[in-house]
Amino acid sequence: MTSKLSPVAIFAAEAPPKAKQSSYPAPFAERVAGRLKRPLGDLFGLKNFGVNLTRLAPGAVSALRHAHSTQDEFIYILEGSPVLVTDSGETPLEPGMCAGFRAGSGDAHQLVNRGAGEVLYLEIGDRSVGDRVVYPDDDLQAALDASGQWVFMHKDGRRY
Could you tell me the pTM of the whole model? Predict the structure, then answer.
C-alpha cells in the first residue's frame, strides 16, 4: 500500500536536496562544502536503510574520513572519477565501479573529487540505532541516538 505522501517513482536527479547538507559541527561542516545530497530513500518512507544521490563538485569530499561500528555502507559511481581514500591508501574510481564498507571493520573511508568535473554516485547505508563513528584524522566521534539523530563529540567525550 502506498501512502499519498510517498511517490511511486521519481527521477532521482529531480529529488529535493537535503535542507541541511551537513550535520557535522563547526568547523567540520565547511569541509564538505561542494557536496549535494538528495535523500532518495526518505521520499519513499524507507526506515531500514538510506539511499542518497550525491554530487561532488570539483575539490569536494564525500565526508570526513570515517568508519562505522554497526552500519554497512555501499557506493556506486555513476559519473566522474573520484578517489577512494581508505586506511589502505588511494584507489581511483570511475563510472560503473562500486565499493562497500563493512560495519565494524575499522577501515576509515571517504571519496575525494580531485578532477575538473563533477562526481555523481549513489550511497546506501543501513540505519542501525546505536551506531558509532570514528574519524581517525580529526578530534571527532559520533553516535546515532534512539531518535535517529547524530550526536557529535570530541574524542575525549565532550559534546560539540
Answer: 0.92
CA pseudo-torsion sign 27, 111, 148, 107: negative
Residue with cell 544521490: 53
DSSP 65-87: SBEESS--EEEEEEES--EEEET
Domain ranges of the chain: 22-131
What pLDDT was estimated at residue 98?
Answer: 98
Which class is domain 22-131? mainly beta
The pLDDT tens digits of the residues spanning 80-139 come to: 999 999 999 999 999 999 999 999 999 999 999 999 999 999 999 998 888 999 999 999
The residues that bridge with 105 in the sheet, in sequence order, are none
100's CB contacts (< 8 A; 6+ apart) are 72, 73, 74, 75
Grid coordinates representing 43 are 521520499
What are the beta bridge partners of residue 89? 86
Secondary structure of 23-41 in HEC code, one letter for each residue: CCCCCCHHHHCCEEEEEHH
